[in-house]
Task: structure prediction
Amino acid sequence: MPEVGPPLQSGKWKYALIGGLCSLPFTTFSYWQTGSELSLGAVFFGGILAGYLIGRVNGEISGVGIRVGIIGGLPVFWVIFDLLTATFRLAGPGWFVASAIGATIVFAVLGFGISALIGEVGVRVGRWLAGNQHDQSTTVGNS
Result:
C-alpha cells in the first residue's frame, strides 16, 4: 500500500534522512582529510542505523538504502567539482577535453551508484540485526 502524506514525513524518508545525515559528516571529513579519496564506509553504517530503526517498527525497507546512499554520498559532488576544475584546466584538443568531461559525468553516476548500493546493503544488514534480536522481556527459569 502506498504511503500517504508529505514525502519527507513518510517512514522511508524519515529513516533515510537519519541514516544519511549521520553518515554525511564522516564521508565529508574523509574527502576533506585526504583531498583525493572518498570513503563510503560511513554510508554503510548509516544504512545499518536506518535499517535497524525501520526494522524495529516493521516498516518497509524498499528504497530506504538508496536514499541513505544518495544523502550520505553527497560529497561526491565535491569530488566532481574538483574533477571538473582540473578538466577545464587541461590544454589540448577539444575532443580530449570533451571526453574528460564525459568521463567525469560517468564517474559521478558511478559514485552515486556505488554509494546507493552500499546504503542498500547497510539497510538490509540493519533490518536483519533488528529482526534477530532476542526479546528482552523473556524470563529465565529457576535451575
